[in-house]
Amino acid sequence: MTKSFDVAVIGAGPGGYVAAIRCAQLGLNTVCIDEWKNDQGVASLGGTCLNVGCIPSKALLESSENYARAAHKFIDHGIKLEGLSMDVPVMITRKNKIVKAFTGGIAMLFKKNKVTSLHGRGTLFKHEEENSIWKIQVKNGDEIEEIQAEYVIIATGSTPRQLPFISVDNDRILDNSGALAITEVPKRLGVIGAGVIGLEMGSVWRRLGSEVTILEAQSNFLMAADEQIAKEAQKIFTRESGLVIQTGVEIKSIQVEKEQVVVDYADAEAESQKLEVDKLIVAVGRIPNTAGLGTDEMGLSKNERGYIEVDEYCRTNLPKVYAVGDVVRGPMLAHKASEEGVAVAEMIASEKQGHANESVKVNLNIIPWVIYTSPEIAWVGKTEQELKAAGIAYRAGQFPFMANGRARALGETSGFVKVLADADTDRILGVHMIGPYVSEMIAEAVVAMEFAASSEDLARIIHAHPSLSEVLHEAALAVDKRALHI
Ligand code: FAD
Ligand code: NAI
Fold first, then answer.
1. CA of 373, nearest ligand number
2. Is residue 18 a contact partner of residue 155, using CB atoms and an 8 Å limit?
């Protein structure tokens, strides 16, 4: 007999698995279908984020940062290390163990919450309007199962964008999966794309000793970030971290030779250049993944860039079909995907009870971004260039980590925090950070903005001393030109 569910979630990344758990918490009979297999060919829940994204990259960033600290910074603390060495396979094994613990953890969470988990590719193939039922095929190799559900949540994520003139082999030409599985430090590493993956992966291998050259098409570095933060980051990454970053380039060809990869490109002055490296990471963005979903046959609307079209409640044009995460508009971030998953689950649960709950939409204007380089970069809300372009009058307050006691004790004094507040109302419009552990500090700014705080609100809140959070406090004071420690 065909198994029947209230909700079928397709995809078990942070959008899908969180949506499935929340649906189950709300009493909905839920199935989550996912096709991911790890490199041993074993089903592995968690999507890009847990398998080849957020979690493994942060594990390697931490290992490589520890190595770099031991090699270059411990000496300042009077700690002398002789014969320091690294064991890259151990780093990779540690990363794999962390991934396994988390992907296995999702299977346990599914069990605990009574979410049915099916492995295979989910394809929508029929809608019975009279019964309000979606029919879905789940294909795992030769095994095919049909299930049905009243509601569908599509959370099929994204895949790496490819360059037309080269294919990824994850040996010499790597995407994010390959970049996370290198077992020997390449002497020369090239990266195409100075975006988030390029910078994080470039940092990992630079810290472990590679000569890293990043080639970026845009003439400005890190265009999504606040300009001042981007300039500071570029300065630190090139002068202190030793990354070579060339912006404004045009890649002409990439050849894989026996011992190396050769990239021919035009530099910012349109001069022909050649880059020879041992391995090349291609990180030029990601594209929404709707392959094999049956969306075209079912008439699901997508925009010209392939994203499934949704309204502010993640509703698609098909009845009772929602879509969340990387496959829809908005930043491609795990926490954005998960919050959309929660919102949609709550919407479906209230709809099933006969009333639409339209208070649960995700606020796309207040989503924190973090880039886990060293120093870290984090922001939420508008950048200065966005405020200028929109003609919004604002006041800015800024404070450096150099003047903070905790940062000095840590020996991590690069960077600053900037608060942007509306010139009339003082409401905080954006907060931008570059410095130590700003991935953790940005949460305070997010809370403040969600509660529509003014810069004065932040300035009047007591912050522990000595702590890095005092830098945000002082930046808020600086909006009113009354920072105390500078
Ligand atoms: P995904 O995580 O991509 O999951 C989609 C799942 O659906 C996959 O398991 C896929 O196999 C499955 N699927 C697809 N089609 C079907 C089908 N037809 N049937 C069954 N299953 C299907 N974001 C952050 O917020 N912080 C970070 O630090 C961060 N680091 C990253 C580092 C890297 C190297 C990369 C590549 C990404 C990183 N991201 C980070 C982005 C983050 O991984 C994504 O935004 C997030 O995973 C999106 O979640 P999702 O649920 O939409 O999709
Ligand atoms: P990205 O969009 O961040 O950066 C891609 C870069 O490649 C851009 O700067 C772009 O101008 C450049 N580029 C594109 N085509 C090029 C070409 N032909 N030649 C040279 N440069 C070219 O994409 P990335 O780094 O692939 O990451 C994808 C997404 O994954 C991110 O946007 C982010 O949403 C997510 N992510 C998030 C992380 C985090 O939150 N810390 C970490 C890693 C990824």
1. 2
2. no
Q: For the domain that residue 124 is a member of, what is the CATH number? A: 3.50.50.60
Angle, in degrees to the nearest 10, between helices 54-68 and 88-113: 150
Instruction: List the domain range (segments joined by +) for residue 222.
Output: 173-284
What interhelical angle do 438-450 and 469-479 show, nearest 10? Answer: 50
Shared domain check, 292 and 191: no
C-alpha dist (Å) from residue 458 to 43, 51, 140, 395, 443 = 46, 38, 53, 15, 13
Tens digits of per-residue pLDDT, 411-454?
A: 999 999 999 999 999 999 999 999 999 999 999 999 999 999 99
Pairing status of strand 173-174 against strand 376-381: unpaired
pLDDT in tens, 119-149: 999 999 988 888 889 999 999 999 999 999 9
For ligand 1, mutation pick of 54, 125, 342 (most atoms within 8 Å of CB): 54
Shared-domain flag, residues 154 and 7: yes
Closest atom of ligand 1 to CA, residue 327: 52
Which pTM does this prediction carry? 0.97
Q: How many domains does the chain have?
A: 3
pLDDT over 80 at 359, yes or no: no
Residue 367 lies in a domain: no
Q: For ligand 1, is residue 216 a contact (CB within 6 Å)? A: no
253 and 107 both lie in a single domain: no
The verdict on 262 and 319 lying in the same domain is no
Residue 238, domain member (yes or no):
yes
Q: How far is the CA of 57 from the centre of ligand 1 (A)?
A: 13
Kindly report the protein residue whose alpha carbon is nearest to atom 21 of ligand 1: 34
In a domain, 389, yes or no: yes
Give the residue numbers annotated as catalytic, written as ranges. 465
The pair of three-digit structure tokens given for residue 396, joined into one six-digit string: 């800015």
The pLDDT score that the predictor gives to residue 98 is: 98
| Ligand 2 pocket by Cβ (under 6 Å) | 163, 192-198, 200, 215-218, 251, 283-286, 331-333, 370-372
121 lines ligand 1 (CB under 6 A): yes
